[in-house]
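Sample log: Tetratricopeptide repeat protein.
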Amino acid sequence: MHPVDRRSGPFPIRFLLSFLGPIVWAQIFLSLAYSDEPAASVPPDEDWQTIQSTVKKRQYSLAIRQIGSYVRTHPGNRDAYLLGGRLARKIHRPGDGLALLDRGASRYPGDPVIQRLRAELYLEKGDMIRSRKILSDLARRKDLSPEERQKIREDQKTLRELAMSMPPLVTFDQNINFQEAIPPPFQSPHTYALENASTHLRVSNIDLSYSGGSSIGTSVAVETPLIKDTVHFQAGDNLYVGTATGESTAVESYLFAGADGQGPDGIQFLADAGDVFAGGQVNAGFYGHVDIPAGPFRLDGQAWYQLPWSGYGQAIIAGGLQSGGLLNATWTLTDNLSFSGEYEYTNDTVGGNRNPFGADHNTLFTADWRFLKSPDLHVVAGYDSQTFTPFVANATTTVPVLLSSRYGFAGLSSLDQIGRYVVLNGQIGGVVGTFDTPGLLAGFQGDGGLSVQIGPRIEFYGNVSYESLAEAYVGSVTTLMTGINFWF
């Protein structure tokens, strides 16, 4: 589908939220039994017995729906709220559990078990701010039993550990077209502990071809723990080769070192700097990235200075460098609906940093509606507006950048795990708009890929995409991404 799903829009947030649940579940609850709290005596009634029978048959989704109806006529049954919350936690549906527990909390506002279970479901949902507030309020109470206080401390410890276990930001994938690799399979706490505490080798490749040119980007990077398991040192080299019709091949590179890490409440950061070779020059380059989740909102900011203008073969041949920034804000209105807005500004030079070339403004708005959970299917739709202002005459004869594009897009998107070690993704849709044209044009976009985990130490991934009308290029664009990760 549209490049936003490979950048920092709703796609990563779906990925991020989709695999947080299994991590939290595995770390907090070693047992899958729903009855981890002593249950009070419940007067028998036919509806309650029906619910208990459904649970014994392990029809948990049906039991949750039955409990939702049951508490409307039996609002005083505390155990019904707890059972519904634990079942939702068991099958990784925090939204359904919170809907029940919020009603239970309004009926029993001081109940520590209900409140703690709400905090655990918020944690599974990825809403660390609300989870932290509930747990902090509970920890200040003086009337809790030693057993309940111990469970709260365990949840607080898990919250801190989870904030340090987010997948790291990766320089190369962001640097070239701001694309992201296919998310890895949902992993166990053991796997994440291994990844955070071990040396990590990444080898990535992105091949891009379009009318009149192409570019190949290859990255080799090593990452190793620097401060406990929360900050990592990384160093590597991104090498870019560009070709264009009637021109000889040219090479650019970014030799870098830096650090990435995770802070409280799921904040992630990455910063690296190094030498950039382009246009016969060696210049200083920099890249920074911060990702800040805040409950239903998420802010993602990136900034870069004098990095290879790697999306065009012609730009590499001309020694193109690019500086700029990107800011994305995502609002997750419900578990199945999110909206995002994004603004990107770049300033480009050619001949190294010698010659100004142009500035680009890009604004993007997207809506993402997950209308089916199994298989995972989303409707993604939005609007993109891009304007390139050249600083030189006849700029498009040097690099075939579109001076303007304004279009709407819509399509279907999916991200599903198959078995334990394979994740598949795919998108297909269309665009309608103007692309340096006086009238409307209609085009097609599609991509697909997979990630395969071979045990906890090796991962392969690949993705291919095609755009018949691209936002910034003349003509169609095909992109192939492959990579392999090793942990030692």
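Observation: Confidence is low (pLDDT under 50) at residues 1-42.
Observation: Residues 318 and 351 are 6 Å apart (CA to CA).
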